[in-house]
Design a protein that fits this description.
The complex is a heterodimer.
Chain A: E1 5-15, E2 18-24, E3 36-39, E4 48-51, E5 54-55, E6 59-64, H1 69-75, E7 82-89, E8 100-105, H2 112-118, E9 124-128, E10 143-147, H3 152-156, E11 163-167, H4 170-179, E12 184-186, E13 202-205, E14 208-211, H5 212-215, E15 218-220
Chain B: E1 2-4, H1 15-19, E2 24-25, E3 42-44, E4 49-51, H2 60-72, E5 78-82, H3 87-98, E6 103-109, H4 122-132, E7 137-141, H5 148-157, E8 162-165, E9 169-172, E10 187-191, H6 196-209, E11 214-217, H7 223-231, E12 236-239, H8 241-245, H9 249-262, H10 278-292
Parallel strand pairs in B: 1-12, 2-5, 5-6, 6-7, 7-8, 8-11, 11-12
Antiparallel strand pairs in B: 3-4, 4-10, 9-10
Helix pairs in contact in B: 3-4, 4-5, 5-6, 7-9
The chains are: A alpha/beta, B alpha/beta.
Chain lengths: 225, 301
């Protein structure tokens, strides 16, 4: 049965403007890279979705950008704090790729450290809006970093044959899809439940409004127009 | 008895969660398919959640042909929520559902805050549906009316077998930066903790006005919340927003409710029904009052 697990925060550390919240794995299956967990946001009504950033035998880690009350409450968690989480949810990246190239933008690099480990540390291109934000690039091995106004797509131009696996802001994903129509893209949408109950996270997939939590969050580029 | 609130669970996406309920209520089915409203569809506020899903559903024909057989395979009693824009819409859907043994009851959604309201009254809609089906009919009412007891009486007069109280109430959230509405439609339906006292008031008023069974819902997140709805007159309780945060809520709340009732020295939760009303207190309240006074050896928080 789908049920939330109770765990504890092991540590929470700054990574540039972001927080890396590490929790005890507590028997949780980390799932496939690109899958996500709903994390309880202390003091808030609804949980928040986060892709798995790192998974070890003992821990799961989530990269948090404290942009609102829920993400700020999660970023403020300290070692020893209890935390409830539900997952793994959704569909992650297909790992049967021959020439993987990871592409991330901003907080969208969140699923890439775990993805990189799963694929044997392939090359990555990461874009950030400032050198401070780019501190998060240290989480991803073999990464080439570009900083605004340089865009990740500038660094993608001569890599047409790569199997792109990307996560980042919507304009970046659309641009990546134009350059690399076979790319796998991880999208984001406001979500209340993460398991298909609330119908809140719809995006236009295959030309219809469909729930991102069930169809994605990782989708083949051609499925989103 | 614990159900889900319509639209707050997809039994096909989470069959285990559906099986943890005593009955599953479908998302509202309309005559024609609907994609629903554009995103953004949900927003969290400090006191609840807003949604503007907009009755996304496959339409009654595809529902009957494809969805209903799959739902029947899950093995939980099915209530089908029906929506429309005219009494005739409801009647036609009820007529089609009437032929299906998989359907245990029909809930008439006459109160969705996110689409244009039916222009006919609850009385007209329930009357039309009543003529179309012999199945149990529950009217789901909005709390956003001057006198919900009057709507309850009209529904009862029209032949409703029960009431579902309450639907969400319209609310609005602004993006803190641009001070523009978060939801694509501006306003949406407010659910969660803020709705709970509103639901209590509605169930309290309607249970004094009519003899019908009432499914109480609105912000229930604990066994204590469920007990309060029962105390004001609900005979069943439905879970909505809490399912988003806790898919195991039905199991937990059922256990909490049993413990809360036992903690009062009461054998059966049925004995707690309507206890908030003075006149019923005389019938079942004595034992409870003894317990409250400590005679039962248990304390009540």
């Amino acid at each position: 049965m789908l049920a939330a697990a109770s765990t504890k925060v092991v540590a929470s550390e700054d990574v540039g403007p972001y927080r890396l919240v590490r929790v005890q794995r507590s028997g949780c299956d980390p799932g496939v890279p690109g899958q996500f967990f709903m994390l309880e946001a202390p003091g808030r009504l609804l949980p928040r979705p986060f892709s798995v950033c790192l998974a070890t035998q003992a821990e799961l880690a989530f990269l948090v950008d404290p942009i609102g009350p829920g993400t700020s409450a999660i970023a403020a968690l300290e070692a020893g704090d209890p935390l409830r989480l539900l997952g793994p949810l959704g569909h992650g990246y297909r790992l049967d790729v021959r020439r993987p190239l990871l592409v991330g933008g901003g907080i969208g690099i969140a699923p890439l450290p775990y993805l990189s480990e799963s694929l044997g540390r392939p090359p990555a291109v990461l874009g950030f809006r400032s050198a401070w934000h780019a501190a998060a690039a240290a989480l991803v091995p073999n990464a080439e970093v570009v900083i605004d106004p340089v865009l990740v797509t500038d660094a993608l131009a001569d890599r047409g044959d790569a199997d792109v696996l990307a996560c980042g802001p919507e304009p970046m994903l659309h641009a990546v899809a134009r350059l690399s129509p076979r790319a796998q893209l991880a999208w984001e949408a406001p979500m209340a439940c993460g398991y298909g109950a609330c119908f809140g996270c719809v995006v236009e997939i295959d030309g219809r409004l469909k729930r991102l939590c069930l169809e994605g969050p990782v989708l083949a580029a051609e499925r989103v127009s | 008895v614990i159900l889900n609130a319509s639209g707050c669970l997809d039994a096909l996406a989470a069959p285990d969660v559906a099986r943890s309920l005593d009955a599953f209520v479908t998302k509202t089915v309309t005559p024609l398919p609907r994609d629903g409203n554009q995103p953004v569809r949900i927003a969290e506020t400090d006191v609840g959640m807003l949604n503007t899903i907009g009755l996304a559903n496959p339409g009654i024909d595809a529902f009957l042909a494809e969805t209903l057989p799959r739902l029947a395979g899950i093995g939980v009693p099915l209530w089908v929520s029906v929506g429309g824009w005219a009494a005739e819409d409801y009647a036609r859907s009820c007529e089609q559902l009437d032929e299906r043994d998989e359907v245990e009851a029909i809930e008439l959604n006459v109160s969705c805050p996110n689409v244009a309201a039916p222009h006919e009254s609850a009385w007209e809609i329930v009357s039309a549906a009543r003529r179309a089906t012999a199945k149990p009919l529950y009217a789901k009412l909005s709390p956003a009316v001057p006198d919900i007891a009057e709507v309850a009486r009209a529904s009862a007069d029209a032949g409703a077998d029960g009431l579902s109280l309450v639907n969400t109430i319209r609310g609005l959230a602004l993006d803190p930066r641009g001070l523009t509405p978060v939801l694509s439609t501006g306003a949406g339906g407010l659910s969660g903790p803020a709705l709970r006292p509103i639901a209590l008031a509605a169930v309290y008023a309607c249970s004094r006005a009519v003899e019908l069974p009432i499914v109480g819902m609105g912000g229930v997140a604990s066994g204590r919340d469920a007990l309060e709805l029962i105390a004001v007159g609900a005979s069943a309780v439905a879970l909505g927003t809490v399912l988003f945060t806790d898919p195991g809520a039905a199991v937990r709340i059922r256990a909490e409710l049993a413990a809360a009732v036992a903690g009062r020295g009461v054998e059966n939760v049925v004995d707690m029904r309507g206890i908030a009303h003075g006149e019923r207190r005389s019938a079942v309240g004595e034992r409870v009052e003894n317990s409250l006074l400590g005679v039962g050896g248990k304390t009540v928080d």
